[in-house]
Design a protein that fits this description.
Largest sheet: 7 strands, parallel
Number of strands: 13
Order of helices and strands: EHEHEHEHHEHEEHEEEHEEHEHH
CATH topology of one domain: Rossmann fold
Shape: globular
Structural class: alpha/beta
CATH class of one domain: Alpha Beta
Strand order of the largest sheet: 3-2-1-4-5-6-11
CATH architecture of one domain: 3-Layer(aba) Sandwich
Strand content: 15-25%
Oligomer: single chain
CATH superfamily of one domain: NAD(P)-binding Rossmann-like Domain
Radius of gyration: 19 Å
Helix content: 40-55%
Bound molecules: nicotinamide-adenine-dinucleotide
Number of helices: 11
Mean pLDDT: 97
Distance between the termini: 40 Å
């Protein structure tokens, strides 16, 4: 069983690679190891995978834009499943750097879905995002809600992926599953995201801005729940009703940022020094996923609440930074 995972050196890609290797798959991974955040962290993730699994993992440093090189990877391996996670992430970065979102998230997505179609890939799953919901004010956010009003180019690029996937089913009958991830966190997590930043600020005294004066709410989803959902989706693919399926991948609880700050202060026994700032352009105020669809298909319910998950992250953070 061969699975191609793009963005395998990224946060969710790393955990997905480990999950599928653990389940006996051979993983072919692609990533360009860009410097949006620490390439050292990306390399350390790759080292961790290679140390744990001597065989069954093959890595290619390639850009999603490089159609002809990626085509060779598809030709060389008999791939049954593609998990497309490689993308330029981040809402705020998309305001300053719009071009890379078009290149990596739209052109890159086209390359992967087109090669997957041409190579008759049986299972094609790709990362969308909760950001496609924009400022929908009815909670929990349901897959059937209107998503025509993205607040950032990042959200627009993810919505574009969903539309392209839908057209590929309509034209070519090429099936896909779009995964709308909700604020994923956990060990080896992303340094540009809030949970990492809070601990970094506590231990390394880095400056931190708390946007929207701390009045944000997020559906924090622990990464092991995410990989479990992805794995089970593959196992239960016959239960998917739509050719171009869209699913929320969340925990199903919305937690305020203020509560997260209190928890971090409690478990580190420290007081956080932060600057309260206004809402940033592109940000959504609240996310809260309706997870009934994915729960029903996978017969799984996210099992980590934010207190457990953040404690696990804290232990990893201390050991990774030798604190
Ligand atoms: N982490 C979250 O909370 C979250 C939420 C919603 C959606 N997502 C989506 O899930 C996916 C994985 O997110 P993540 O948190 O692991 O992000 P990440 O940035 O850690 O991982 C993405 C990986 O893709 C690679 N990449 C980017 N552009 C590339 C290109 N042009 N060619 C090759 N590789 C490239 C990066 O080097 C990185 O390692 C992304 O598509 C992201 O948009 C994540």
């Amino acid at each position: 069983m061969n699975i191609l995972i793009t963005g395998c050196a990224g946060f969710i890609g790393f955990h997905s690679t480990l999950k599928f290797l653990n389940e006996g798959y051979k993983v072919i991974g692609i990533d360009n190891l860009n410097n949006y955040y620490s390439p050292k962290l990306k390399n350390n993730r790759l080292k961790y995978i290679k140390n744990k699994f001597k065989n069954n993992f093959k890595f290619y440093r390639l850009d999603l834009e490089d159609y002809s090189e990626i085509k060779k990877v598809y030709k060389y391996y008999k791939i049954g499943t593609v998990l497309h996670l490689g993308a330029q992430a981040g809402v705020r970065y998309s305001i300053e750097n719009p071009e890379v979102y078009i290149k990596s998230n739209i052109n890159g997505f086209y390359n992967i879905i087109e090669l997957s179609r041409l190579n008759k890939i049986k299972n094609f799953l790709y990362a969308s995002s909760s950001s496609v919901y924009g400022n929908n004010r009815t909670y929990p956010l349901n897959e059937d809600f209107n998503t025509d009003n993205p607040l950032s180019l990042y959200a627009a690029s993810k919505k574009t992926n969903e539309l392209i996937a839908s057209s590929y089913f309509n034209i070519f009958k090429f099936k896909s599953v779009g995964l709308r991830f909700f604020t994923v966190y956990g060990p080896f997590g992303r340094p540009d995201m809030i949970i990492y930043k809070l601990f970094e600020s506590i231990y390394f005294k880095t400056k931190i801005n708390i946007y929207n004066n701390g009045n944000h709410f997020r559906d924090f989803t622990f990464v092991d729940d995410v990989t479990e959902y992805i794995y089970r989706l593959l196992k239960n693919r016959s239960k998917l009703k739509n050719g171009a399926e869209i699913l929320n991948v969340g925990c199903g609880n919305s937690i305020s940022l203020k509560k997260i700050i209190q928890l971090v202060e409690k478990i580190t026994k420290s007081k956080l020094k932060y600057k309260l700032v206004d809402m940033q352009l592109g940000d959504v105020i609240k996310t809260h996923s309706d997870t009934s669809k994915i729960k029903q298909i996978t017969k799984y319910k996210a099992k980590y609440n934010y207190v457990e998950g953040i404690n696990i992250f804290h232990e990893w953070f201390k050991s990774y930074h030798k604190i």
